[in-house]
Structures are given as C-alpha cells and as structure tokens.
C-alpha cells in the first residue's frame, strides 16, 4: 500500500484518541444502568445456590459464544464441566466431559471476573498462552504469549485466491508503545465504564498485537472492565452471546470504524452506540434467562414433595440443565434409561409416575413407540 495513502485508523494524525458525541449516548447509558439495577436487584431474591447457577450459566454462554464468533465450536457439556469444576463444590468428576480447550477458556473468563488486579502485558500473555498452549492455530505455528514480530497482519475474509482485506493492523514497531498506552488507560481512565469497555475493545483490535486470538482477548478485556461494575462476584449476562447474535453487524461496524475511507470524520460514536446497544441486549437476554430460573425454582417447589426417587430427580435435573435446546424433541424411554442407567420396565414406571405427578407432560403428536415427554414448568 502507498505509504502516503492514509486508510487505516492508526494512520490518522489524532490516533490514539477516539472522539465521540457524548450527548448521543445518554439514553442508552440510562437503559443499561436500569437493566443492570434489575439484574442486581433480582439476584437478591435468590438463594445462594440459585445465584451460583445464574453465574455458572452466564459463564457457560460467554465461553461458548466468544468461541463461536471466531468460528470455533465447543460442546456445551464440555464447557459446563469446566465451569462446574471451578465453581461447584458438588461437581462429580465421574461426569467430567471437559476438554483442555474448554478448561483454558473458562480459566480466562474466571480470571476476568474475579481478578481485579490491574491489566498488564504479562496477564494478557497468560490469557493468550491459555488459548494456544500448543503453539499452533490449526496447522500454523504462531508466537504464543508474545506480541507478533511482523508487519503484515491483515484481517481478511473469503476463499483462497479471493481474499478481501478488511484491515491492516498497527506496524510491529508500534505495538509495545500502543499496548502500554492502552493498558495505562484501561487501568487509570475515569471514562464511563461502558464507554470504556467499547473503546478498549476497539483500541486492542486496532493494534491486533497477537498472531491470532485477538478477538477473544479483546472480548476478555471487555469482560474484565464490565465485571468491575457489579458488586457481585460474577456478571449475570454474557456480552459475547449478544455479539454473536449480530456477528455480521459486529464485523460491519468494525469495518466502518477502522477504515478511514468509511470513517472520514474520525468519529467513534457509531461504534460506541453499537457496543452499548449490544450490551443492553445482553442484559435483556439475561433478564429473560432469570425468568427461566424462577420457573425452575417454582417447578422444584411443586414437584420436590412428590416423593421422587433418585432416578427421577437425576433425569429431571438433566432436562432442566440442558433446557429445550439440549433436549429438543423431549425425552423418551430410551433416553430415560440411558440417563438413569435403569431397565426399560423401571423407566416406563418412573415416567408414568412423573406424568401423574405433573412433572412431565406428553408432547402433542407423539404416540406409540415414538411417545415423548417434556418438562411441565408451569401448571
């Protein structure tokens, strides 16, 4: 690229300042504060065990979706095991299905939420090492726990031979200086924390200091900053889940913001607005999830006194844990046998009792050998 052509954010004379129109954020910031207040207030009505369940679910969603944004799929059961190993003292290692990758990612997220020590280069390198401990990203060897040593860091999409360059990152010689400035700003700036999380995310992505994993580390920084707002141990919402629900919008707004041909005014209001709207959406989704937890609590209050045996409790717990997504199509005799490790005759008898107790209900349209059942959360 012609050095006289200034196309990328870091080539602007005012970089690394990020001007924005503060008055355009007032309404959004008020909505976020309101929803955060609801989340904090609702949690006070839950027992300690239920609060822990909310925290666990938020961490699971964050781990799954920060990976999905990058096109990496982790199994929910593996992530759940990784989280529970760290947070649930009742976790049974007999049911451990975690993997090294899920363990590593969960360790990063827990550090983001619990470790309030200032951000530093060594800490970011530790996160990066957890993501790529093998030293490879697929078939490619990368520098791990150290910043890249080359200039040609491009963000591209498209098939081989038809790549489209979306962004050219900060030159290697500027990385150390830029990262030092970013970390000082993250630790010391009095900027509104929600705006701060948006700008820190953008600034880190603009630098793109690592060979790979920059998106996940950027979201980890965002998570760290957002976690400082709540007085609770963990946030009850997952920012990455909301980002993943608008992944196309995420990459589009990054393109518009980091490309000076598209951001001629060098204004970052649009990026911050997108970030705040996404954050507010994450909180709204969390509030909906809490309603599900309330329904589960009411379910156990209604069914626990029915004299359920250990097999029935185990199966119901598994169904509630996985939700409709994990138990699509409901449960049948074969699934019940597999979960409870019991005979067909016992499974049939147990299911019949659960239907009589109004814990399970037959799914409409299922019959005969294909008869299936789902949880009856509300009567």
Describe the protein in words.
The chain is mainly alpha-helical. It has 2 domains: 9-291, Fido-like domain (Fic-like fold, Orthogonal Bundle); 307-375, Winged helix-like DNA-binding domain superfamily/Winged helix DNA-binding domain (Arc Repressor Mutant, subunit A). 56% of the residues lie in helices and 5% in strands. It is built from 14 helices and 6 strands. It has helices at 26-43, 48-69, 76-87, 100-114, 121-131, 175-188, 193-207, 214-227, 239-245, 247-258, 269-303, 310-326, 333-340, 344-356, and strands at residues 136-137, 140-141, 154-157, 164-168, 360-362, 373-375. The chain has a two-stranded antiparallel sheet with strand order 1-2. A two-stranded antiparallel ribbon has the order 3-4. A two-stranded antiparallel ribbon has the order 5-6. Strand 3 (154-157) and strand 4 (164-168) form a beta hairpin. Helix 2 crosses helix 3 and helix 7 (193-207) runs antiparallel to helix 8. The longest helix is centred in the C-terminal third of the chain and has 35 residues, at 269-303. The chain is elongated, with a radius of gyration of 24 Å. The termini are far apart. GO terms for molecular function: ATP binding. InterPro entries: DUF4172, Fido, Fido-like_dom_sf, Fido_containing. The active site is at residue 208. Residues 119-274 form the Fido domain. Keywords: ATP-binding, Nucleotide-binding.
């Amino acid at each position: 690229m012609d050095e006289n052509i200034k196309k990328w954010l870091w080539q602007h004379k005012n970089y690394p300042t990020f001007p924005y129109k503060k008055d355009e954020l007032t309404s959004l910031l008020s909505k976020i504060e309101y929803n955060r207040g609801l989340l904090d207030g609702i949690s006070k009505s839950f027992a300690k065990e239920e609060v822990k369940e909310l925290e666990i679910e938020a961490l699971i969603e964050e781990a799954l979706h920060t990976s999905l944004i990058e096109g990496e799929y982790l199994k929910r059961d593996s992530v759940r095991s990784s989280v529970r190993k760290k947070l649930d003292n009742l976790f049974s290692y007999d049911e451990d299905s975690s993997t090294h990758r899920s363990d590593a990612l969960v360790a990063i997220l827990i550090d983001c939420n619990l470790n309030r020590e200032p951000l530093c280069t060594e800490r970011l390198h530790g996160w990066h090492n957890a993501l790529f401990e093998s030293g490879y990203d697929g078939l490619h060897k990368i520098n791990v726990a150290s910043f890249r040593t080359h200039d040609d860091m491009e963000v591209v999409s498209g098939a081989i031979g038809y790549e489209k360059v979306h962004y050219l990152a900060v030159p290697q010689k500027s990385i150390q200086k830029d990262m030092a400035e970013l970390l000082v700003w993250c630790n010391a700036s009095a900027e509104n924390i929600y705006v701060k999380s948006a700008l820190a995310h953008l600034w880190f992505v603009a630098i793109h200091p690592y060979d790979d994993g920059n998106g996940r580390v950027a979201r980890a920084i965002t998570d760290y900053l957002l976690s400082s707002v709540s007085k609770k141990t963990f946030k009850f919402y997952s920012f990455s889940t909301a980002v993943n629900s608008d992944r196309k919008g995420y990459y589009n707004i990054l393109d518009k913001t980091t490309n000076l041909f598209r951001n001629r005014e060098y204004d970052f209001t649009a990026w911050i607005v997108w970030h705040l709207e996404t954050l507010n959406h994450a909180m709204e989704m969390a509030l909906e999830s809490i309603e599900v937890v309330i329904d589960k609590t009411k379910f156990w209050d209604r069914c626990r006194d029915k004299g359920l045996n250990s097999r029935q409790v185990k199966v119901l717990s598994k169904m509630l844990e996985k939700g409709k997504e994990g138990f699509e199509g409901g449960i049948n005799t074969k699934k019940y046998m597999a979960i409870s490790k019991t005979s067909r005759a016992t499974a049939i008898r147990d299911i019949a009792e659960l239907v009589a107790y109004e814990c399970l209900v037959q799914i409409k349209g299922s019959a005969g050998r294909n008869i299936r059942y789902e949880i009856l959360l509300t009567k």
